[in-house]
Structures are given as structure tokens and as C-alpha cells.
Amino acid sequence: RAKEEGRGAYRFYEQEMNARMQARRTFEHDLRRAIARQELFVVYQPQVDSTTGRFDGAEALVRWNHPDQGIVSPAAFIPLAEDLGLIGAVGEFVLRKACTDAMTWPSHMTVSVNLSPMQLRDQRLAARVACILAETGLSGARLELELTENALLQDDGRTIAMLHALRALGIRISMDDFGTGYSSISYLRRFPFDKIKIDQSFVRQLPEDGESTAIVRAIATLGQQLGMTVTAEGVETDAQRRFVSASGCGQLQGFLFSKPVTASDVRAMFDADALPTSAVA
Ligand code: C2E
Ligand code: MG
Ligand code: MG
Ligand code: MG
Fold this sequence. Notes:
- With 281 residues, the protein is α/β, with parallel strands linked by helices.
- The chain contains twelve helices and nine strands.
- The chain has an eight-stranded mixed barrel with strand order 1-2-4-5-6-7-8-9, surrounded by five helices.
- α3 (87-102) runs parallel beside α5 (125-136) and α5 runs parallel beside α6.
- The longest helix is centred in the N-terminal third of the chain and has 33 residues, at 2-34.
- The chain binds ligand C2E and magnesium ion (3 copies).
- The site of ligand C2E has 22 residues, from β2, α2 and β6.
- One magnesium ion binds next to loops.
- One of its GO terms (cellular component) is membrane.
- It comes from Plastoroseomonas arctica.
């Protein structure tokens, strides 16, 4: 009897596994077609200059409008795109769209694009980015590329050469999610970064948490001393805004200012913000 129950449980488990594997295969199949079917799209989260309080750029964030599941977040499909060898195509789509959209913004606005580790390992990356800049007409000085620490784990020599090739195009390189990896500080010395983005997990605890306040102040000071811009991510409250601004973060990003919005909305926000004060009144 126990044996039978065991078998039943096993059969149930097997069915469950099969169902899950089937769902994953369908999802993979869907993702392979997502680009061609134009289901991927890009939203933009505005960034604010902490000194002037005005927008100075936006981060491009990809989304997937799945036919049955609705909007799928990048956390749910970027890793799969990497496994399936689709990240090159996804990354190129986002870059081209971001550069095209940024061309319609006031000319002092920058656009930041997240890069996967696998994109950075592709030796043709700099040439591809150069092509997209030429194609869209965007100046390299208006493009930033964001990397997380896990992009830097392999092959220092090649990575450094690639980052220099990208910087030679005028592009700025940001270290995303700073402070969450194992050796964030040593990477700042080994790789040519222009900007540090303090991870939202530190900002979220501000201004009450003693450790987070110390860490955010220290990162902001470190960045300033190294001549880098420091961006605070995940700013949600006015108290957080005041704290990170006073600590020396030059750029702010978070729901307090705006959630990620569509290309046409970000353009309207930038146009409105760029108007001289007299024209607004
Ligand atoms: P990230 O680059 O660190 O982007 C910031 C994430 O934090 C975004 O989530 C954004 O919507 C969210 N966020 C911004 N402000 C706030 C806030 O005030 N509070 C909270 N709670 N969250 C905030 P999203 O769009 O879901 O992206 C998640 C991650 O997916 C990104 O983290 C990035 O690592 C990755 N990602 C997004 N787009 C791309 C892409 O085109 N290519 C690659 N390779 N990765 C991407
Ligand atoms: Mg980012
Ligand atoms: Mg981040
Ligand atoms: Mg992140």
C-alpha cells in the first residue's frame, strides 16, 4: 500500500516535471520568435542631475509583450536568452532602439543600455556598436553602457581591450549594481569605468539604517575621488533623495522621479523639462 502510494506520488511528480519541461520548451520557442514578431520593446527610466534637479538622461530597459502571458520582465527572460544564444540579437535590438529613440531627445540627454556578460565577450561588440551609432546618427558621447560585475569575471586582458575600444567611440562605461558583487572595489581599479551606480539595496535602507548610510557615503566619496560620476539607483522617497544628494551622488534614478515609461512618454517628459522656466509659466 505504501509502495503504491509512493508510486502514485512518483507518477504525479513525473507529470509535474513533464508539464514544466513542456512549458519551458514552449517559452523558449516563443522567445525565439519574439524578435521577429516585434514582441520585444524598450521602456526608459529617466535619470536626474542632483545639482539642477533636471533630467539628464534615461536608462533603457527591455520588456517582452508575450502573447499569452502579458508583459514579461527582463529578469525572467534575459537569462533564457543567454542560454539559447539569443542575447546577441536581443542586445542589438535594444541598442539600436535606444540610439534611435535618443536621437529624438534634447541633445544633452544621454541613454544607458545594459549589456550582458556574453555580449561583452563577443569580440565584434565594439564594431557592432560603432555601426549602430553610424546608422542612427547618435554621438557616442550620448551613449552609456552598463555592466555588472559578473561581466568582468573572465579574461581581464580582452575585457579591458574591449572597454577601451568602446570608450574610443566616446561611450561611457558604468558599473551597475555596485556593492553587490564580491570584489566591486578591485574591479574599479582593474577596469576603465566612468560611472558607478550604487545598488538599490543600499538606497532602500536609507536614511535610517546606519550601515547603509555609511556604505552609501563611502561609495559616493570613493567615486568622487576617482573622478567618476556616482548614480544612486532606486530612490523612492524624498528623504532618500536628500541623503544621496548630500552624500555626493551626482545623478539620481528611481520611482520618486519616474517609473520606466514608454519611448513617447519619456520624450514628452524631456521636452517639457528642457523648456525654459519662463515658457513653462
Ligand atoms: P538594472 O539595470 O539594475 O535596472 C534597474 C531596475 O530597477 C529596473 O528593473 C527598474 O525598473 C528598477 N527600478 C528602478 N527604480 C526603482 C525604484 O525606485 N524602486 C524599485 N523597487 N525598483 C526600481 P527591470 O526593468 O525589471 O530590470 C531588471 C534588470 O534586468 C536590470 O537591472 C538589468 O540588469 C536587466 N535588464 C533590463 N533591460 C536589459 C537589457 O536590455 N539587456 C540586459 N542584458 N539586461 C537588461
Ligand atoms: Mg542597469
Ligand atoms: Mg542596477
Ligand atoms: Mg540589476
